[in-house]
Amino acid sequence: NPILTHVHRVYRSNNIYWHQWTNKGIFDSEGNLVEYQSFGEDITQQKLLQDSLQKSETEFRNAFEYSPIGIALVSPEGKWLKVNRKVCEIVGYDKDELMNLTFQDITHPDDLEDDINHVARMLRGEINNYLKEKRYLRKDGSFVWINLNLSLVHKLSGKPDYFISVVQDIQLRKQAELMAKIEEQRYRAVVKTSIDGFLVIK
Question: How many angstroms separate the CA atoms of 124 and 160, rounded?
């Protein structure tokens, strides 16, 4: 016999109550409808919980997507699983392009070995997370300095599930540090090679 289920809202004193109704037709041996049964159930609490969870998921999704800091989920093998807009902005790839790459593909060769060693230690359970400065290779061929904070999420079985990668662009800071170092080297070279005397008074 066909069973039809529908949900509707009931308004009482400006409050909304949700009810789910199950309707069933009872037929005789000749197919004639002899009885119609309808069962109602108050599912208000279930709907309120569902709405609350949906709101929380939306808020989390927006916080992830529009964060001013890059956030990504990365597989134990290094494949990008999910990235927000800031990560794409930092490396110059769009999301679809990045999904076809690994973190190894965009890590500067001089930083890759140390990165892989840290990841291996995390997968072995020797460390829970690590923080380091490294360089990513951008799509245009240039590189960008980033501050990476990596942590590992495990499955209920205890096996590694995915990495949470928090990426902060520190290119401007590294450029400022380099310029300060160059200026200091120039100053030292001038002092060392000059025939005049220098007196520094503090």
Answer: 9
